[in-house]
Amino acid sequence: MAVSTEIVRDAGDERTLAVVLGHDDETNALTGSVTLLDLGADDPALRIVALPEASGDALVPLMREAAAVAREAGGTVLRWVTESEEADRPALEELGAVEGDEVHRWWRLELTPSGPAPDGAAAFSVTREDAVFDVEFDGDAAILAHDREDEGTAAALAELTAAALEKLRAEHPGTREVLAYAAPDDDHLNSALSAAGFAPTRQRAVEYHLPL
Fold this sequence. Notes:
Blueprint: E1 3-8, E2 16-24, E3 30-38, H1 44-47, E4 48-53, H2 59-72, E5 77-82, H3 85-95, E6 98-110, E7 124-128, E8 131-138, E9 141-148, H4 154-171, E10 177-182, H5 187-195, E11 199-211
Parallel strand pairs: 9-10
Antiparallel strand pairs: 1-2, 2-3, 3-4, 5-11, 6-10, 6-11, 7-8, 8-9
Helix pairs in contact: 2-3, 4-5
């Protein structure tokens, strides 16, 4: 697929350096985009990050154009996070991107459904002290997103996880799997997920670097 790129520099946000758009040369359909953010860091290697909304063949021309814009703006490294590492690997290798730190890994818990899939069900939150699980649905899967202000304890997070699963099972018995993510250094959350029966998967979010 031949892709042409377009650079939009006036995005109406002072942190947005530019948005690179990709279009299919034959149909002119949008193939993806890369938003470049200027974080204002003194270190030029940490200053500019990319938010790609593209994968596969479309990623390469977009990231090359984004790299040129970042270099022109004084950046020395372009950084971004990918959740589709395996699918993007050929493009990452072609770009010469360097694998950085793991940001988080997905964990999975299988359930035995006893009702209709909860697809389209309203999201809800479960809170304990300063920690929360926001729960959303995609098909027959529930997706748990965690946030907390303090480090807390493994026991407190285990209680929060148990409460979220109890509410999920009671109100949405058609749920087939529960997905949650945790940073590799978040020992308390990893321990809580493991204690609740979750198992780590191969899917992860990883930061990649492209020297400019």
